[in-house]
Amino acid sequence: MADKKEGKTTSKVPLKKKVEKKVDKATEKEKAEKKVERKMEKVTEKGPEKGLDKVQEAAPEVAEGTAGTEVAGNGATASKATEEFVVEPMELPPFEIIIGERMSPFYFKFQFKNVEYSSGRNKTFLCFLVDVQGSGGEGLRGYLEDEHAGAHAEEAFFQQVLPQYDSALHYMVTWYVSSSPCAACTAKLVEILKARKTMRLTIFSARLFMWEEPEIQVGLKALAAAGCKLRMMKPTDFVYIWDTFVENEDQTFTPWEDCQENYEYYQEKLADILQ
Prior knowledge:
Cytidine Deaminase, domain 2, disordered N terminus, alpha/beta
């Protein structure tokens, strides 16, 4: 029995120590919580003042920023308004037709080449011969060029080269052009030929201008019906232009290899249009 009692008493001693340890841990937690509360109180006492200071310092900057954006916005609108009223559209100089007796050999070889696709050839070169029968004076000879930016070369000829007309005289006009007339020019030429009954016009073209377009075909037909002779330039015609209208410096001109072939191609197209 004694052995049992002693066993019970020995088993109770560790329980008391565990309780004491739990109590000690609880007190330590309470002390730690109190320290945290004290720190929090200190922070809350100092925090609002510092927070207010920061807000007060930031507020003017924000106000200044918004004011700056408003000023910038007003300035931008003001500048836009001034641009709308001050800036004026640029006026380009008037279009000028170049007239001369002989052209550059480079222009001739490039602009008059009778290729099928005339890429980069945005000018019209017109070489002219005018023989006025009954006037007793010498005829006219030269060339003019345009850039399709104003009056075309065909119209400019009658404005600057042959503006006057006398019904008592007979005019024989021959053109050698780098490209056949456009629809607008054919319509004007028809009107001129109808008004000038004693004038005969012959046009030799190196290329056909947009010959697939229906309006171009109608214009060429109307021009032929008005009495104008339309021809494509043969290799011999290119040699004649070189000798007569180009600054050749006594050099000879040899037509390019496919000149005859291209002539036949365009001549066939022109014949189909005029039939």
